[in-house]
Amino acid sequence: MAEVVQVWAGAYDCDVLVIGGGIVGLSTAYAITRAAPGTRVTVLEKEPGPARHQTGRNSGVIHSGIYYRPGSLKARYAVRGAAEMVKFCAEYGIAHAVTGKLIVATEREELPRLHALVQRGRENGIPVRELGSSQIGEYEPEVRGLAAIHVGTTGVCDFVGVARELARASGAEIRYGARVVRVDRRADRGVAVLTEAGEVVRGRVLVNCAGLYCDEVARLTGDDPEVRIVPFRGEYYELARPELVRGLVYPVPDPAFPFLGVHLTRGIDGGVHIGPNAVPALAREGYDWGVVRPRELAGTVAWPGSWAIARRHWRYGAGELHRSVSKGAFLDAVRRLLPGAEAADLVRAPAGVRAQAVLRDGTLVDDFLIREGARAVHVLNAPSPAATASLPIGREIGGRALGMLGSL
Question: Can you give the three-state secondary structure of the chain, one letter per residue?
């Protein structure tokens, strides 16, 4: 990497160099400058603005933390992060609302899983109210089910607005349109990166918050991430009659998967999003079936974990694919919760892609995953509820980066 090595004789451009301008990367920059004023932070983001991928393409839900294993990073950071996110939005005038949500069982076999969620919520310190079938209408008159729980701490917000405010309030230097193509990490010197535009940026410590490309950035740095990002596209519809839904309505999730199933979300704009499903994407930014990137697809297919997932969960995957290609099948999933929905009520909306880390044996990494290398911190799994949990996640990552700086 001669282009980069030649510039090591110069001064550092920053103390901490963050790759990725989504909500996690920007929260990390914010946390570092709050904890250690005067620390120079530079954020490199390949897009022309912040939060263009996972942060800006989700349903905008501030998750309560009820789904996550007690003691896990997801559980601890989501519960803490939800309260902090509401406070942050209120402090900076960002659109938000604490709406509460219903988790509804529509089949008898779901009732034990619903009860397990009640227990998990209590273990995570989340207040829940159990509802019988007749009580569901108190919250959602058009929703039907055998039983439900109401989680009062769930809300919605403008996560893109949060990301913009984190960028502004951090005081970090944010460079947009700066795609990283090479990395030279020297344990005795620091990290220098080369961007697609030919810029070289040098820092003492690297933080990898590259989301859909985090495993590739880790390899560029010289570290083995031991996981591969396998992209799953989540497809959404908009409800043409938003008056049918007052707040947030979710099915009982299958605990074998990190996906929450097709749900109904009234956003801060008053519209109701329906979805997502979860289908394999043919590119890391494959927001529809027409986006195919052969190199990325080949990387996914070559990863043994991808085949293990396919063998293990083909029935589940077949159902998700059916809902992707058939509006009628998607409508059937919606009608389980909202019987009055009609085909004309479903209007296609922009999709998102989940950056799901998968182990070689096909295990879907369930928790947030943060690993360290020499002068580097890699965030290798931070899908939902990372937006909700972004403030405490940022402090965790920032603390590790500052610890590295202090030891140099």
Answer: CHHHHCCCCCCCCEEEEEECCCHHHHHHHHHHHHHCCCCCEEEEECCCCCCCCCCCCCCCEECCCCCCCCCCHHHHHHHHHHHHHHHHHHHHCCCEEECCEEEEECCHHHHHHHHHHHHHHHHCCCCEEEEEHHHHHHHCCCCCCCEEEEECCCEEECHHHHHHHHHHHHCCEEEECCCEEEEEEECCCEEEEEECCCCEEEEEEEEECCHHHHHHHHHHHCCCCCCEEEEEEEEEEEECCHHHCCCEEEECCCCCCCCCCCEEEECCCCCEEEECCCEECCCCCCCCCCCCCHHHHHHHHHCHHHHHHHHHCHHHHHHHHHHHHCHHHHHHHHHHHCCCCCHHHEEEEEEEEEEEEECCCCCECCCCEEEEECCEEEEEECCCCCCCCHHHHHHHHHHHHHHHHHHC
Task: Determine whether 301 is exposed, middle or buried from the number of CB atoms within 10 Å of its CB (0-12, 13-18, 19+).
Answer: exposed
The torsion angles phi and psi of 178, rounded to 5 degrees, stand at: -120, 80
Contacts for 406 with CB less than 8 Å, ≥ 6 apart? none
Identify which of 65, 58, 76, 215 has the alpha carbon closest to the alpha carbon of residue 126: 65
Round the average pLDDT of the chain to a whole number and report it. 94
User: Can you say how many angstroms the Cα of residue 123 is from the centroid of all Cα atoms in its chain?
Assistant: 23
Confidence of residue 258 (pLDDT cuts 50, 70, 90): low
* Closest to 268 (Cα-Cα) out of 97, 397, 108: 97
Nearest to 50 by CA among 81, 79, 74, 18: 18
- Residue indicated by tokens 């096909």: 362
Closest to 248 in 3D by CA, of 235, 232, 234, 261? 261
pTM value? 0.94
- Checking DSSP bridges between strand 190-195 and strand 272-275, what pairing results, if any? unpaired
Joined together, the tokens standing for residue 16 give 């901490």
**Quick one: pLDDT at residue 317?**
83
Mean pLDDT along residues 117-146: 96
Predicted confidence (pLDDT) per residue in 360-387, tens digit: 999 999 999 999 999 999 999 999 999 9
